[in-house]
Structure formats: C-alpha cells, structure tokens
C-alpha cells in the first residue's frame, strides 16, 4: 500500500518545489494563505479592542488555536480524499497544495526587484519594493539600510518561507505544512506590540515556539550551503551568528541574520532594534544578489535533508 510511503511524500515535495519555481502564484481567490488572512481578519474584527486586555488575550489564545487547527484539519481531509482517489492524484494535487505553503522563487524575485532598483539609481523605487519584504516603514531608509533590509529579509525568511514549512511537511505531512503556514500568517498579521499587544501575544509566542528548531536548522544549512555552494567563509558566519544571535527581539531571527551577515561580510542593522555583524562593511546592491544566491543555495541543501527526514519518519513508523 503506497499510502504513507515516504517515497511518495518525497516525490510530492520535489514536485511542489518544481511548481513553485516554474509557475505563478495561485490566484488570490483560491490561495489558501489568502483565506488564512481573511479568517484572521474576520476573527480580529470580532475580538475585543486593545483596551480590554484580558478578553483580548483570551481571544488571541483562541485564534492561535483555531486558525492552525482549521487549516490543518482541512489539509488532513484533502489528504485523505486524495489518497482515496489514487497515487497520481495525491502527488499532483498534493504538490500543488503544498507549494502554496512555501515560497522559494518569490523570495528571490522580491529581493531582486530591490537590487535592480538600487543598481539603476532608483532609490525611491528600491524603498517601495521593500514593502513586499519587510513590515517596517521604508520611506526614509538610507541606501545602505535598504540593502540591509533586503538581505535581512532573505536571511530570516529562509526559515519562514521554506525550511519551516518543509520540515513541518516532512514530520507531519500536508496538515503540518498548512498549520505551520497558518501560525506564521497569524504572527505576521497580529504578532506585534502596540495595537495587538494582547490579542497577538499568543500568536507571537506560538510562532517563536514552532520556529525554535527550523530557525537553527536554517542557520546551519546556510553555513553549509554558503561554504559548499557559494564559497563563503562559514567560520565567520558561525562566529557572527553565535555572537549576535541574541540581539534581535525574536529568539530565532538572530541565527539566520547573523549567519548571513558573517557569510557575506556585511553589517545588518535595523535602526533602534539591532546591529548584527558590527565591524563589517555596509552592504550594497551586489550583496543583495549574493544573499539571493545564498537563499537558493540553502533551498538546494535543505531539500535532501527533508527527504532524509521523510525517510527517517517512514522507518520509525514502519
């Protein structure tokens, strides 16, 4: 019986990556992440306002439990139905569904738009393009800070954009990948201080928790990929990551940002928040390109690792 065969799951992951690399994003009307956002926005409108601290905290806990469970449950139903139809249907449809939970190509393309604008001297366009990568206000960023923000986003999003969802899929199948993406979407929408101080607290903490392993794995893979595929100094990357990992508010982001800073030999700063790689040079447009290549290299190294996790899972569960 092929159901649950790790080789089928590995084929699904490989086809999903191919789908991500060669096809366009699914239309918003049917994209699962768009629907995650709609559900979160609807629940937010039903929740108590920021002045109601305890009710907001309780509502946030309910959202952090409900949204991942809902989308993980839908993915489980879809998986069960596809397995009933047959192997080919499972691999084809499952890979398309899985591809909506991660983004390798689009991460590189988004950073590439910033690089192109900077190279052409279009600093306003570069700052504008950053809005698809970062949530901070980009309107007044100086040129080096624009490059820093793009590189930071590529580095940090190696975890959120593909290593995290791939690991969730390798361990828990399609429901795990969808639950991971729902948690990440929750954090990106309400996991902030200020207006969402209490409503988003549970989402932010849950996102930190589920990324404890993926972020550190991503940093390790980045060092490996940087050394083997890009010829970058892994020793310096490791040194900066270990030294500066605690400078970010997130317990996870500092690992990959630090590794990227050391590998590329650049300082990465978010003014008022952190400065990672102090003592290194300021980055420019070419360093964004190097970060993009590093991100693709991380994906190339991560893929066989995930296949190994799938094989191990198949061996453990027999």
Strand content: under 5%
Total helix count?
Answer: 12
The main pleated sheet reads as: 2 strands, antiparallel
The CA-CA distance between the termini, in Å, is 12 Å
User: Spans of 5+ residues with little confidence (pLDDT < 50)?
Assistant: none
What global shape is seen? globular
The largest beta-sheet arranges its strands as 1-2
Order of helices and strands: HHHHHHHHHHHEEH
Main structural class? mainly alpha
What is the strand tally? Answer: 2
The figure for the number of domains is 1
Helical residues, percent: over 70%
Mean pLDDT: 94
- Which radius of gyration do the C-alpha atoms yield? 20 Å
Task: Explain this structure.
This protein has one domain (6-317). It is globular, with a radius of gyration of 20 Å. It has a two-stranded antiparallel ribbon. Helix 2 (32-46) crosses helix 7. 47% of the residues are buried. The protein has twelve helices and two strands. Helices cover 73% and strands 2% of the residues. The mean pLDDT is 94. It has 318 residues and is an all-alpha fold. It has helices at residues 6-22, 32-46, 53-85, 87-99, 105-119, 123-129, 143-190, 201-210, 212-228, 234-244, 253-264, 285-317, and strands at residues 268-270, 274-276.
């Amino acid at each position: 019986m092929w159901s649950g065969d790790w080789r089928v799951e590995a084929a699904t992951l490989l086809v999903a990556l191919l789908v991500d690399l060669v096809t366009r994003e699914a239309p918003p009307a049917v994209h699962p992440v768009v629907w995650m956002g709609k559900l979160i926005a609807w629940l937010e409108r039903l929740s108590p306002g920021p002045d109601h601290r305890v009710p907001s905290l309780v509502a946030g806990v309910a959202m952090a439990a409900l949204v991942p469970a809902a989308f993980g449950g839908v993915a489980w139903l879809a998986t069960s139905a596809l397995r009933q139809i047959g192997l080919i249907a499972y691999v084809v449809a499952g890979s398309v569904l899985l591809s909506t939970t991660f983004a390798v190509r689009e991460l590189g393309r988004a950073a590439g738009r910033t690089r192109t604008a900077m190279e052409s001297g279009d600093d306003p366009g570069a700052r504008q393009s950053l809005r698809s990568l970062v949530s901070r206000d980009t309107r007044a960023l100086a040129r080096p800070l624009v490059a820093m923000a793009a590189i930071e986003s590529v580095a940090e999003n190696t975890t959120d954009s593909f290593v995290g969802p791939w690991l969730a899929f390798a361990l828990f199948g399609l429901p795990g990948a969808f639950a991971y993406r729902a948690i990440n979407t929750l954090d990106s929408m309400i996991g902030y201080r200020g207006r969402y101080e209490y409503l988003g607290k549970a989402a932010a903490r849950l996102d930190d928790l589920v990324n404890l392993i993926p972020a550190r794995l991503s940093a390790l893979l980045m060092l490996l990929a940087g050394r083997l595929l890009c010829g970058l100094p892994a020793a310096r990357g490791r040194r900066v990551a270990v030294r500066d990992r605690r400078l970010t508010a997130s317990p996870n982001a500092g690992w990959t940002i630090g590794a990227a800073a050391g590998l590329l030999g650049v300082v990465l700063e978010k003014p008022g928040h952190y400065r990672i790689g102090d003592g290194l040079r300021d980055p420019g447009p070419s360093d964004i390109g190097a970060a993009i290549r590093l991100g693709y290299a991380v994906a190339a190294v991560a893929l066989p690792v995930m296949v190994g996790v799938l094989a191990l899972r198949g061996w453990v569960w027999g």
